[in-house]
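Lab notebook, bench 4. Continuing the backlog of folding jobs that were queued last week. Each job is logged with the same field layout so the records can be merged later without manual cleanup. Today's entry covers ATP-dependent RNA helicase DeaD, a 619-residue chain. Filled in by technician R.K.

JOB TYPE: sequence-to-structure
TARGET: ATP-dependent RNA helicase DeaD
LENGTH: 619
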Amino acid sequence: MDTPDTSTGFGELGLAPIIAQTVRDLGYETPTAIQSECIPHLLAGRDLLGQAQTGTGKTAAFALPLLSRIDFELQRPQVLVLTPTRELALQVAEAFQGYAKNIKGFNVIPIYGGQAYGLQLSQLRRNPQVIVGTPGRVMDHIRRGTLVLDGIKTLVLDEADEMLNMGFAEDIDWIFDQAPKERQVALFSATMPPAIRRVAQDRLVNPVEVRIASASATVDTIDQHHCIVTRFHKLDVLTRILELEPFDGMLIFVRTKNATTELSDKLKAHGFAAEPLNGDMNQDMRERTVERLKQGQLDILVATDVAARGLDVERISHVVNYDIPTDPSAYVHRIGRTGRAGRAGRAILLVEPRERGLLRAIERTIRRDVPAMDPPSAAALSESRIDRFIAEVRKTMTEQDLDFFYRLLARIGQEQEIEMNDIAAALAFLNQRERPLNVKEDLPRPAAPRREWTERPPRAEGRDEPRRSPRPERDAAAGRDAGAAPRPERSHGRREQGDLVSYRIEVGHQHGATPREIVGAIANEAGLEGRYIGRIDIQEDHSIVDLPKEMSREVVNHLKRVFVRGQALRIAPVASAHRPATGTPSERPPRAASETRRPHRESDHDAKGEPGSRRKPRD
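JOB STATUS: finished
OUTPUT FIELD FOLLOWS
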């Protein structure tokens, strides 16, 4: 968040007296950095190119000076603000209305897709001075002749980078061509990619450039943490966070529209008041959903990036990134939904083990570390549930008439000859069957970043042997021609055999598979550290792999769909009787060199040095 300029008040920026008074009435004393920088230039009629993140007060930075310049006697559109989403259009229109609440004859309307044309037509007939809209619907009204831009004095592009990302570049150019050539232009963008620079060069005349705060400054007031968790335990970690974190309203971000519905349904099944927010919902439904969150009838919204654009709800105390964003700047936009206007906020980021690179990219972008947090423990969850249970018991004792139940318990105790403590324990058990008070299982801790295959595994305790150069059979087992027959099995873990279960996977020598690729695929997809994977016996058309016996069925089912060398693993447990012999190399017949030696190829690994295994893309 920008630090306000305490040396200058709104009254000293040159705003119209009635606007300055309204700002004071609203309780704002000092402008933010972007407001201090932008307001004087926009009052002077200059074109402006502003770079600022969400939550820095940029709406007021252009709304206040433009209201000061509007001729309220003139009943025609004088300011046009383009926004990427309906939500942001509504937010900006509300801001204009709030700042002009003491001005008679002022009208502002939002126009956007999804709202009935009839309502918008009736509002346009009132000749509002300010139009706030999305490009598509603004174009429709211009073509219909229901919106005329002849009197437009200022054109504002809010969140221009997002509009370009959403494919509105041609629409914006067309709207510019319909507006008067002599007009003021203000362009605001969180980032300044080349496309935004081109728009500025083509459409702005001698602009003032205002650049406020790096990404880190907008998130410094937000308490941020990340939690490493495998994809199979993300829902468990999320529900535990929801139980243990004291939050008012929460916004949970996922990547796809389908995921908003799926996750909100799962949360509702766990007893949380959650609803999706996505682009497939009609506008009335979206507005009702947001209003329910504002009114406290709903606690959690599960949203995509686009659906949450412009969302500003004071109740949002927490933002959870259930799916980490692939664009670091999107992370800043997401967590900017909380901690706004100086309010406290908390952001939690769930990171799968193989997404650590995206976490590092985010940290580089915001120029600060996002501290780690452990998944909520079973003990903490149990204690929290017990505390709530005790509180509910005490509340029930003080607020409810329990005479009937006292008589009932006395009857049960007398007729059944059961002690009161036994009855109470049984009733407590029945009460908590859906959500046990005594949570016994801790979620598994994801492995630390996997070491490269070429590193030696940790030595057994008490063992002190000198480091030796790689043996030929090691090289051959890794897929390099070292001129010697390899061991058909490889063990690189320290677990006892009893901790492992043998699985058959449908990829072998004929597919060109190497131990490194198999380990990489399983470790990455199952969230296992490589050293927890036991022996790998590569056969001609399949392989046998020893994996931890506590691996869940969900993980095994997921691994069935993982591909190595274009082959689905189709993993399945192997009966011990079918496990190949596990004697020493000298006790097993050597495999023919032509059967085992595979030349090392660059295609074995991706550009980052990770195993060249990927899940087959879905349709």
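OBSERVATION: The first strand starts at residue 48 and ends at 51.
SIGNED: R.K.
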